[in-house]
Design goal:
The structure is a single chain. The chain is α+β, with helices and mostly antiparallel strands. Among the domains are: 97 residues, Rossmann fold (3-Layer(aba) Sandwich); 73 residues, ATP-grasp fold, A domain (Dna Ligase, domain 1). The protein contains 14 helices and 22 strands. The strands form five sheets. An eight-stranded antiparallel beta sheet has the order 14-13-10-11-12-15-21-18, sandwiched between helices. Helix 8 packs antiparallel against helix 9. The chain starts with 10 loop residues before the first strand and ends in a 22-residue tail after the last strand.
Amino acid sequence: MNYNSTQITTINVLIVGDGGREHAIIKSIMKSPMLNKLYTTSKTHSELESIAFYEFNEIDDFSNLTQFCKTEDITFVIIGSENYLSHGIVDHLKDEGINCFGPTKNAARLETSKSFVKDICSIYSIPTPCSDIFFNEKSAIEYINNLTKHPIVIKLDGLASGKGVDICQTQDQAIESIQKFFKFINDPIKNTNKIINIIIEEFIDGTEISFFSMIDGKNVLPLTVAHDYKKIIDKNGKERNTGGMGAYSHSNIISDSCKHTILRDIIYPTINALTDLGIEFQGILYAGLIIGKNKQIYLLEYNVRFGDPEAQVILPRIKNDLLKLMIKTSQGKLNNNEVELHDFSTATLVLASENYPNDDSYPEELVTIDENYFNQNKNKIQLLHAGTKIKNGNIYACKGRSLNIVIHNESMDDAIKLLYESVTKISWRGMQYNKNIGANIINLSFIGV
């Protein structure tokens, strides 16, 4: 279908995924004049936004998904989660003539295989921390026992919902991490993505940023930058890695010169590498970067979709019609496009259930929300649903990360202040959140690298 034709004014769109990221995408897509009817695989998002619902229970139930799209004349599908991408949802839908926003299973290896990315970095001279790959616990521990320098970074080589990275300050912590990860690898019930190895990586001291671009196979359209917070202190006082507990975005995180360096030294060489391998990448490329104390920029990892919770802060800043940009990405027609950004700052706070991220399942807890407060501040505050159910008109938290508060404000300081004021207007038993979002706001606009 030719979406550029003046005869085609609107289309039906399905968004696959049920988290806070997908709710943020829904909010942006609903503004598009190109949208006719919107569908979602989230029952909660369907009820909150009064949009159509498709029940997609099995991650690889592609036949029923395809039939539903054809029956409902859905011609464009937006994939939110990396799990669907890793199972080849884009390959299947495109084979059936249904256009998608997201990379193929092969292109998604940029996220699903850290060792694949390390190989690309080595061959194409992309700066990344030094690392080694280990397929068994014994050899990994022997390597650690011979190390004299800490901290060290240990990673699962595959999808782990943001919980597959440990920064180990001591030898004992590193051995504990290795044992934990190989116990996971050897558990066929928990290791659903069939991860077979870990990576032990050099620790780089510096400032982490998330750099987002749309890629149409050959053209790169930089979007914007965010900074996220992965840690939470659990009820036992122990710091835990999570899928993300908050983020912010503003116009001065990096300079134009820094952006140019990132594109020249990291993004473009990666796309060239994929092209040389015969892989076409179309979708979002999210580069997790660190700017070292020496101002060198290193690639830590790639994700092949909008981050969660980064999407919640970058999408509100984009002035462009998001749906139009996504369609152009899927068509290989991003050339001559530029992204316009709002000047305001954005911040988000993730509200999580008790025992997150330690548990795999969570009891339903009744959520109390001061609706009057959020209605009065609706021009500056969004409440996004990441893991909730609606029953008899009541909202229940039912997943690890349940709600996201998103603030839009001219000042970053005022955005953070409002963020923590608004969290006092929500409660449920066991609710927890990171209390340090916005501490030490990054402003690297003065750095030219």
